[in-house]
Structure formats: structure tokens, C-alpha cells
Amino acid sequence: MGIDGQGKIPRPLVVITTNEDRQLPGAFVRRCLVLDLSLPEKESDLIEHLKERAVHHFPLKEETDQEESDQEIKRDQHKRLLAKSRFDERVLTEVAKQLYQDRQQADALGVTPPGQAEYLDILRVLDRFVRNEAPEKQLALLKEIQDFSFKKYPGMQRREDTQNTAEVTEKSQE
Asked: What pTM was estimated for this model as a whole?
């Protein structure tokens, strides 16, 4: 921090984040500006929200001297993004759909559901290992790694294990 033109030291802006595991003291919260960054509940809204985040984090780089993070994200008159992600639309949608399903499963188990961070983590892995590959290759790698990013708690087994458990349960009830 520097001193402004009048010799005054500006007040710092302090940002505190919480995942709501514990409640913050009321006296503290009353002195704060609170910004709730909850994800949309509806599947289609969540998918669109996550795909928009992908455009910000993984933009299709234009031929400019600007860094990727400095590029302006342009919108049309309906506020839809004009910019594109460097990922194929099918890849972004598939990752977002899987995240939605795993959020539903986590809620049912009473554990913290995966969120935007896990979505971006998966895309970072794809970006690192199959950046310029065909969407089919990206989707193949996604299938291999999705359980490692989204399924973080006991009881959130691999999809095949969950399906096999359901089949065994159905047969035992017959």
C-alpha cells in the first residue's frame, strides 16, 4: 500500500471467505458487507453458470499482445457472452452435468457438495494434459478422472460401484 497524494494511508480492504462450516459471530457479521456466492440450484442454470466461468478462466485466446486474464469478456444486448472458451461446448457441458449429479449425491449423503472450484480443477487437468486435442480425447480423459475430483467423501463411490450396489439391492429385495 502506498500513500495517496495527500499523505494519507488508504484503509485496507479485507476480504474474508467462509464455506459456512461454522457460523461467524453476529457482532462481526454486522460490520461486514456480505456477498453470497451460492451456485444456482436448477440444473440448466448451474450448467450455464459454470460454462460462463470457464470462459473467464479458459478463454479462447485472441491474437493480441494482452495476457489471457486481461482480455475483455464481451456480451451481446441480452447479456449473453460473446467470448468462447478454448474447450468444446460438449466438454464444458459434460463436466457441468457430472458436477450437478455429484452435488445431488453429496446433498443426499449430507456432505459438502462439489462446487465451482472442482469444476475448474477438472478443466485445469484437461487443459494441462489434452489442451489442443479433439473433444473426444478430452471426454475420454474426463471419464477417467471425474471420480477423483468430484467424489471426495466415503459413500460417494465410482458410478459403476453405485450402479452395482443398486442392482444388488434390487435383487436382494426380490
From this structure: 0.69
